[in-house]
């Protein structure tokens, strides 16, 4: 899952439930790409077992570059 921050909707519960369904019912490999700013430790404890890949995107460590990129 990529292209937009998946944790914006319902504090990540929706995407967590979606990943759990994909893993348990469909036996799919699952992944998330996030900027990491909205992930809670509680979410990770509940849903990380349903992820095969969890990636943190970092466009730049320069705040001005990130501001210009939007």
What does this structure look like?
- One of its GO terms (molecular function) is 4 iron, 4 sulfur cluster binding.
- InterPro entries: Aldolase_TIM, RSAD2/Viperin_antiviral, rSAM_sf.
- Its cofactor is [4Fe-4S] cluster.
- With 70 residues, this protein is α+β, with helices and mostly antiparallel strands.
- It has helices at residues 13-24, 41-47, 63-69; strands at 31-34, 53-56.
- The two termini are 20 Å apart.
Task: State the gist of this model.
The protein has 70 residues and is of the alpha+beta class. It has one domain (10-58).
What features would you highlight for this structure?
single chain, alpha+beta, 3 helices
Question: How does the major sheet shape up?
Answer: 2 strands, parallel
The average pLDDT score comes to: 89
Strand content: 5-15%
- Per DSSP, the total helix count is 3
The level of helicity is 25-40%
Overall 3D form? elongated
Show unreliable segments: none
Strand order of the largest sheet: 1-2
Structural class: alpha+beta
Question: What string, H for helix and E for strand, traces the elements in order?
Answer: HEHEH
Number of strands: 2
Q: Give the end-to-end Cα distance, rounded to a whole number of Å.
A: 20 Å
Number of domains: 1
Report Rg. Answer: 13 Å
Cofactor: [4Fe-4S] cluster
GO molecular function: 4 iron, 4 sulfur cluster binding
Keywords: 4Fe-4S, Iron, Iron-sulfur, Metal-binding
Q: Topology of this structure?
A:
Layout: H1 13-24, E1 31-34, H2 41-47, E2 53-56, H3 63-69
Parallel strand pairs: 1-2
């Amino acid at each position: 899952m990529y292209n937009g921050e998946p944790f914006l909707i319902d504090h990540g519960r929706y995407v967590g439930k979606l990943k759990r369904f994909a893993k348990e019912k469909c036996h799919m490999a699952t992944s998330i790409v996030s900027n990491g700013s909205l992930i809670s430790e509680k979410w990770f404890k509940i849903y990380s077992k349903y992820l095969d890949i969890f990636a943190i995107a970092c466009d730049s460590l320069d705040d001005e570059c990130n501001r210009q990129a939007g």
